[in-house]
Design a protein that fits this description.
This protein is of the alpha/beta class and about 575 residues long.
Length: about 575
Amino acid sequence: MKRRLAAILAADVAGYSSLVRTNEERTLQKLRELRENVVEPSVAKHEGRVVKWMGDGVLTEFASAVDAVSCAYDIQSSIHSRNREALGDQEITFRVGINIGDVVVEGDDIHGDGVNVASRLETLSDPGGICISASVHEQIKHRLDVPFQDAGAQQVKNIVEPIRIWKWTNSANDDANTKKPTSDSGLISTPSLPEIPSIAVLPFDNMSGDAEQEYFADGMTEDLITDLSKLSGLLVIGRNSSFVYKGKAVDLRLVGKELGVHYVLEGSIRRVGNRIRMNAQLIETGNGSHVWANRRDGTLEDVFDLQDEITREIVDALSVQLREGEETRLGSQYTGNTEARDWFLKGRQRYREPGPQANAEAQVLFTKALEADPNFAYAMAVRSYLKFHAWFFKWNSHQNAFEEALAEAELAAKIDPNLAAAHAFLGWMHMWGEGFERALSEHSTALSLDPNSSDGHLWQASSLIYAGTPELAIAPMDRAMRLEPHTPPIYLLNYGHLMLQLDRYEEAIEYLQAAIRNAPQFPMNYIFLSAVKTAQGKLQEAEEAGSRLLELIPVATVSTLNSQLPYAKEEHRLKIVAGLKAAGLPD
């Protein structure tokens, strides 16, 4: 029996079962790509040996700890970079454990305590991170500039003595820690340019001489964003961040730096009676040069064709590679009825405003759109989401309000199966409906149809938090915030919720306080803040958060709020319940 001393690296995919349930074929394909393009080349580069692959896991062997840790760092950094630029996919993250120990060699395989400890360390690693034994740390601490943190002695399964471990997480050098809300606008540290073409569509100027036509110009802008967002070969900045620049004279090169994009599309719209004139120009942000410009004239009946022509010319100008199905979806129209579309644009403008009155008024406008075109799936989907909001916040006391909202979203998806918004809304609602498996499946479908949907990534992340896998929510949450560099309050809120459930309380407070500065009227801010303050033992501050919550929802009780939060794990629910009780809410 041959023995030798070796550095053993064990790795597996975090949340593999959940990924397979959501989309087995895509998960296996991505794992195969990572195996062939990242893991095995990195092992070879650092003079290691792949001992064996075991489903979603891999066991490798190195002659030195320095080589093993260097390889692990390269693998995790490479996967992280790929995930940041992934469009529409649920990202794969690895956990890595490394140990130095005696191994028994049997053919090409290795066994023994050295291997067992590495496998146990892998389970202690954070997703995207590396966990090493003290013996490994002793070998690399003066040789590698990788900031490992002492995590103390840990008792692990089937190992008699506790093992002192050291951990490195990608978040130590990544957005989860370095993304700090730097202003009330929510602008996060300047994003880097992606490898693929990237664009921001700035709000088109309303040149009609009629302020009442502002909704029409905004609607055309949003439609262009929505159309371009369907393309996986293009990074498209979300509506919220693009509209920060509305009505402002801006240096497009500075806009490019703030948003991290190669190109900016700007233009104007003039609507007089039934006639429309649309001017658009595409600017390269690096040097301010014009890439493409055009003018279109037509009537209201031509508006869909005008949008389609501009979208396709931009795609051609940027040489965007289209995947299967994208060509068809690019030319799809939500309605051919100009009256229905007009009501929809007015409703969408009102829909973005908070509060029960705006909710009710937006529903009326979408109802008028549906009266003009009963099969207008997009209007139906957005109205269903408004109905859900009214149910959730108790603005609608109708007994079957939730069931009505869910049924309407289901119908919208049935009418137009390629409507990403309908699937995204269904994904959110089904946490209270059929459950997390259906919810996450709908989110996956939505993002496959609209990979640049910042809201889609946000809702997927939120669903993963409620499903009890907050560690899997980091990647889609980061993606949502990359698509919205001027981060909206709801994103700050959800990042705060994520940090709460990861027990990263100081970061949770930063994000929740930023959310409150931007949207003090949103009740969920105070629900999560009271939970964080309670977990920290700051009960007076928890009570202050509760007082503000009761100002916004006077009828709020612990039991009613608890019943509406669909946590899969009791430990996550108990954090909220403890916070609500400490905040002084009645049972």
